[in-house]
Amino acid sequence: MSAPTAPADVVAKWEAHFPREELETLALAGYGNRLGFGTRPALLVVDATYSFCGAEPLPIRDAIAVNRRSCGDRAWAALEYIRELLAAARAAGIPVVYSAMRDPVDPAYEPGLWGAKNTRGVEDGGSPGDGRDNEILDEIAPGPGEIVFAKDKPSLFVGTGLPGYLVARGVDSLIICGGTSSGCVYATAVDGFSHNYRVAVAREASFDRVDTPHWAALLDIDMKYGDVVGTAEVVAHLAALRTRA
Q: Where are the alpha helices (DSSP H) in the chain?
């Protein structure tokens, strides 16, 4: 049996961030095939809150000094692309869903092991009047009819009304953006795939605190669970849907 040939496009897409040999190995194993967009997508904006973005685009170490969850100026760079996705999604008339971590003062808050895994986890305790940590940034605030699901876990699918919401609207695919790439975006993408949705993650509209987990998570999604694509490609797809409607 002859050895398979590594698809050149799989390697070329990621070789700026990973060793070519590793990418060729993944490609030779068959990973990285394109799923493609669905015809009835929903846009999921994951945790683009003041807690994860901060109130201004601070350098990352300054940002985490203020709030341990913050992704600082990396998040703010992604906000411009998230805004593009929101405009395209609203013009196409597709469902737009946001997530935010549940406020610790909410009686339904279930912290699980978050505090045990982070030495600064005690800072998440919160108290009334703590501010807007778990609110969506004003710059990308939800519009009329757009829902924000509060969640306690990384995935937007766990412990929220998202699964039923998607079924009720006949959604067949997900476009995901927000943060963090290696955390809640990744978990939501994997669970979306596990629920048999076609998944697309908008590359520039996703953010993390540091580069290594950011790119590793995006690569893993692109190889196994969905398509990591440029924001411009998503916008073009949504524009085409609007034209056909």
A: 8-14, 20-28, 50-53, 60-66, 72-92, 114-117, 162-168, 186-194, 211-220, 231-244
Q: Specify the pTM.
A: 0.93
Beta bridge partners of residue 178, listed in sequence order: 46, 206
Question: What does the block give as tokens for 231?
Answer: 């924001």
At 131-173, the pLDDT tens digits run: 789 999 999 999 999 999 999 999 999 999 999 999 999 999 9
pLDDT at 244: 77
Question: Which residues in the chain come in under a pLDDT of 70?
Answer: 1-8, 125-130, 245
**DSSP-assigned letter for residue 147:** E
The C-alpha atoms of residue 26 and residue 100 are separated, in whole angstroms, by 34
Phi-psi region of 235 (alpha: psi -120 to 50; beta: other; left: phi over 0): alpha
Closest CA to 45 of 102, 100, 97, 92: 97
Cβ pair 172, 38 in contact under 8 A = yes
Listed in sequence order, the residues at least 6 apart from 128 whose beta carbon sits closer than 8 Å to its beta carbon are 105
Q: What SS3 state is found at 198? A: strand
